[in-house]
Each structure stands twice: as C-alpha cells, then as structure tokens.
Amino acid sequence: MIWPVILPAVKFLWLVLLAYWLFGALKAKPARQRESTAASLLRTALTVSVFLFLFSPVARAGWFGARFIPRSGATSLSGLVLTAAGVALAIWSRYVLGQNWSAAVTLKHSHELIRKGPYARIRHPIYSGVILGLIGTALVIGEWRALLAVAALSLSWLVKARKEEKLLAREFGEAFEEHRAHTGMFWPRF
C-alpha cells in the first residue's frame, strides 16, 4: 500500500517549508509599521492549530475522522503531488519576496512592491501555495477534518490578505492598483 509512504513524505514537505520560513525570518528587513501583536499571535496560533488538527490522530474523533474520499493510491499520489507543488510555490514566492517578507501584516523600511516571479500573476502566492498544499494534504488524509483545516486557514488568510492589500494600496497608490488590476488575489490572472 502506498499510503504509509506518502503521509510521511507530506509531513516532510511541510517541515521543509517551516524550516525555510524560520530561516527566512532571520533575514527580513526591520518593520516600519506593523499590525498589533495580538492579531499576529492569534493568526499564528490558528495556523499552528490547523496543522496540529490536521496531523494529530486525536483529531480523528467522530465525524472529523470520517472519510470524504475513499483511500486509493491514485488519490494519495495526487495529493502528494499537489502538496509538493504548493510547498514549492510557497518557497519560491517567499524567496522572491526576499527581505520584504513578514509573518505579520507589516510595512518594512524601504518596502518594495514585488511584481516578478509568481507575483507577476498572483498578489499572495505564498498563501496560494500553502492552500494548494493543504488541498493536496486533504486528499492524502481523506478525512473531513482535513477539509475543515483547508477552510479555516483559507478564511484566515483571506482576512490577512485584505489587510495587507489596504496597507499596500496606501503605501504604493496607483502602482498597487495597477498591479491589482493585472493579478489575482490567490490564483493567477492571465
């Protein structure tokens, strides 16, 4: 059976993203303007809770552990591919964003409006990558709790993305409005 090999591979991919995320935070520019610590901590706690809920066997109680899709090698392999693609997109996006990245809604000193790489078509490709990866992980896990995790994190990051866009619109004015007109929030606009 392929599933016992795929689930550890999925977990490994998420750990790679976490390690890159933490390493990258060391090189970020200092913040000039930042959301409240409480808002940032709440979102971080929600993100950590989502992943704990996703991978903890304790969370399989009741309907959370019921399957929404039958387990199969094809489904598991498809989920692994989507998880890998999502993690790769998130890492690439984080790399292109460079020192302008922050886990919180933040404006950096000498903040730049990045419009290259994945940002040429998507305004929030890190979130897109994580959401795509979560969808893939949901296929691997195949339980309703995984879909709940995708929905919870997607909603949280939609709220965060809207806050970021208000800040960027204020900072970059017409340049950001032109960027918004040619890109999708989470999915590419061609």
What does the model show?
This protein has helices at residues 3-25, 37-55, 73-97, 125-141, 144-172, 174-182, and strands at 31-34, 106-108. With 190 residues, the chain is mostly helical. It has one domain (1-20, 55-100, 115-190): Four Helix Bundle (Hemerythrin (Met), subunit A). The longest helix is centred in the C-terminal third of the chain and has 29 residues, at 144-172. It is globular, with a radius of gyration of 17 Å.
Instruction: Report the average pLDDT across residues.
Output: 90
Largest sheet: 2 strands, antiparallel
Structural class: mainly alpha
Radius of gyration: 17 Å
Read across the widest sheet, the strand sequence of neighbours is 1-2
Specify the CATH class. Answer: Mainly Alpha
Helix content: 55-70%
Identify the CATH architecture: Up-down Bundle
Fill in the CATH topology. Answer: Four Helix Bundle (Hemerythrin (Met), subunit A)
* Overall geometric form: globular
How many helices in DSSP terms? 6
* Residues in β-strands, percent: under 5%
Q: How many β strands by DSSP?
A: 2
User: Spans with pLDDT under 50 lasting ≥5 residues?
Assistant: none
Order of helices and strands: HEHHEHHH
Distance between the termini: 40 Å
How many domains, as an integer? 1
Oligomer: single chain
